[in-house]
């Protein structure tokens, strides 16, 4: 049976695309070589903002601004419909030791974002366990975080219950089905899946699949390692960022610390050097973490791209082929907007932002 849309890749990008298309009344098949939500979407930290948003280009800012306000609604919907709580927390973010404070405050004024300089007393009132000695910080009260593994679980459960969606997990895509100047589905290790439109949302693995049909996509794997502390509830209440590293608290007290940036191809092994570096960074932000055991250490592969700008849209000259990949460090941040932008184009709605900067070349 041919579906309206076939989505390759079961991360948050692929699953949100499937959900939005199903909401619009279309039949959707989603194919994932493993289990949905278990690659980069699972491995990240879940901060719903670029780490230093004032340092990003306008195309990323446009998507992130639209996305951030959608997570409370999305989390609430998924909890209601699946019983799985993605744990959206809007506790704000503290920036320690920022070199370009003036640029940050100028950006905040330009985009009407609440970002302010706070003194030491306010800093330690908000986060008493933060490392001593700072004379202040930057404070963004509206920043939220989401427990991304649970977001993936909730999206998967929602799609599994949808009559318009068929999940094909544990099926590896071998090739796109090309018929003349059109793509009409994929060949997998267990047979073919056909659709009127095929959307490649395979993250770091997208480039190799597209290259086989002559499409060049500048997306590469970039390894990121993280560690998880088992901490008592309340030890850390907010996301705290210093020198490009961060700690992220969860509702049960656990604290994530991340992350590395490593150009090592498709190698997902963890390393002792990264563990030591992440542990040192986390304890330099919250010294009390030194007394907490590390429960887990893992790695994921981000889809790196030039300037971190994702490719979103129809591939010119090939009918039925679309891409949504290359979000680099901001896949969760940009997911609601980037998927909505593509779905708008797929079903003929007015795009939420100008699609030009993201179109495949």
UniProtKB/TrEMBL annotation:
It comes from the Bacteria. Its EC number is 1.4.3.19. Residues 4-344 form the FAD dependent oxidoreductase domain. It is an enzyme of class 1 (oxidoreductase). GO terms for molecular function: glycine oxidase activity. The keyword ATP-binding does not apply. InterPro entries: FAD-dep_OxRdtase, FAD/NAD-bd_sf, Gly_oxidase_ThiO. Keywords: Oxidoreductase, Thiamine biosynthesis. Pfam families: DAO. The keyword Oxidoreductase applies. Pathway: Cofactor biosynthesis; thiamine diphosphate biosynthesis. SUPFAM superfamilies: FAD-linked reductases, C-terminal domain, FAD/NAD(P)-binding domain. NCBIfam families: thiamin_ThiO (TIGR02352). This is Glycine oxidase ThiO. It comes from Salinicola endophyticus. The lineage of its organism: Bacteria, Pseudomonadati, Pseudomonadota, Gammaproteobacteria, Oceanospirillales.
């Amino acid at each position: 049976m041919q579906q309206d849309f076939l989505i390759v890749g079961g991360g948050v990008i692929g699953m949100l695309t499937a959900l939005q298309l199903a909401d619009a009344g279309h039949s959707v098949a989603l194919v994932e070589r493993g289990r949905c939500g278990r690659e980069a979407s699972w491995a990240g930290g879940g901060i719903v903002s670029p780490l230093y948003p004032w340092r990003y280009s306008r195309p990323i800012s446009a998507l992130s601004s639209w996305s951030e306000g959608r997570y409370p609604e999305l989390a609430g919907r998924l909890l209601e419909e699946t019983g799985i709580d993605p744990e959206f927390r809007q506790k704000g973010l503290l920036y320690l030791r920022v070199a370009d404070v003036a640029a940050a405050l100028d950006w905040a004024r330009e985009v009407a974002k609440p970002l302010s300089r706070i003194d030491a007393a306010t800093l330690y009132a908000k986060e008493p366990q933060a490392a001593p000695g700072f004379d202040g910080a930057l404070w963004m009260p509206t920043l939220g975080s989401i427990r991304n593994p649970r977001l993936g679980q909730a999206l998967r459960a929602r799609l599994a219950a949808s009559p318009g969606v068929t999940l094909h997990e544990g099926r590896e895509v071998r090739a796109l089905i090309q018929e003349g100047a059109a793509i009409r589905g994929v060949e997998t290790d267990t047979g073919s899946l056909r659709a009127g439109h095929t959307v490649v949302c395979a993250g770091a693995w997208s480039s190799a699949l597209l290259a086989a049909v002559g499409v060049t996509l500048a997306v590469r794997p970039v390894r990121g390692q993280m560690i998880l502390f088992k901490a008592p509830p309340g030890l850390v209440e907010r996301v705290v960022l210093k020198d490009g590293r961060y700690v992220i608290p969860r509702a049960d007290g656990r604290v994530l610390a991340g992350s590395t940036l490593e150009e090592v191809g498709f190698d997902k092994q963890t390393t002792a050097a990264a563990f030591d570096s992440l542990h040192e960074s986390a304890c330099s932000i919250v010294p009390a973490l030194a007394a907490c055991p590390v429960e887990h250490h893992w790695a994921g592969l981000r889809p790196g791209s030039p300037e971190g700008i994702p490719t979103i849209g129809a591939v010119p000259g090939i009918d039925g082929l679309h891409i949504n990949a290359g979000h680099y460090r901001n896949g969760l941040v940009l997911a609601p907007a980037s998927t909505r932008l593509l779905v708008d184009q797929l079903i003929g709605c007015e795009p939420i932002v100008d699609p030009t900067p993201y179109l495949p070349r």
